[in-house]
Amino acid sequence: xxPALALTTGEPAGIGPEISAALAAAKHGxxxxxxxxxxxxxxRARAVGATADWPxxxxxxxxxxxxxxLPLAAPSLPGRLDPANAAYVLQLLDRAVDGCRDGTFxxxxxxxxxxxxxxDAGVADGFFFGHTEYLAARTGTxxxxxxxxxxxxxxALATTHLxxxxxxxxxxxxxxxxxxxxxxxxxxxxxxxxxxxxLVAGLNPHAGENGHLGREEIxxxxxxxxxxxxxxxxxxxxxxxxxxFNRKQLExxxxxxxxxxxxxxxxxxFASFGHGINVTLGLPLIRTSVDHGTALDLAGSGKADPGSLxxxxxxxxxxxxxxxxxxx
Length: 328
Fold this sequence. Notes:
The protein has 12 helices and 11 strands. The chain is of the alpha/beta class. Helix 1 crosses helix 2.
């Protein structure tokens, strides 16, 4: 049978349930298992003009679409967040992770969730930063790397959701080395690249301009790259970020490592807005996601674009196939 992909349908008050239903009604070629409340998904399917006659998930059947029913804690209205359903959202993720661990699912695709309402509910163990950090904790993974793809780009981040003032201290030789090793390894094993070429951005304007605009390149980034090059990694940089994202430069690499969130992602989202994909590297499972939020103002309208979710499902299929091929 085809590998089963777990699609967690996300925040019930957002667009996740309806874009999941819209995708389920389209020709996607995958074996999709929708994780969520059956009544909720049926209601949101009607909003996009789709039927919801999906069978219950049976691991022994190769259905194009099936549903693994997990009930809401409280009725959900489009656009209205309810902390009572925060535990439900996390339950979807927990069930998907458990399914990947026991072999039921080959990958997880996630619709958007709302970090604020989960924190308001206080159901997470400590502050809830988002999907990426939660899945890392849930799988016991010390460090993960956020990679976004789209518009012909692959952009990974050395730091993720940090205030800008905290970024320089967070970039150490040890953390940068771990990030680059994870990125290199997963470009090989998950994307099938035999010798990945990674373009590394500098932190400061003009990559520090020989120390005149900051010394992080000289004291942290360059020594880390030199040490990893000695191990056989193909690393180009540190490069000035303002000229890195031009066609000629990008042709020299397979992925870019940006030093912080708003250094790399504005370019990628400009190139692929609405159809970008978020991939979590370093996990002991495959996870892809949309690159947008819950869009509460569109929830229930039937107007939300499922393009990013469709792209996330397609990439999950590709990564599952790549992981199944013998390594070179």
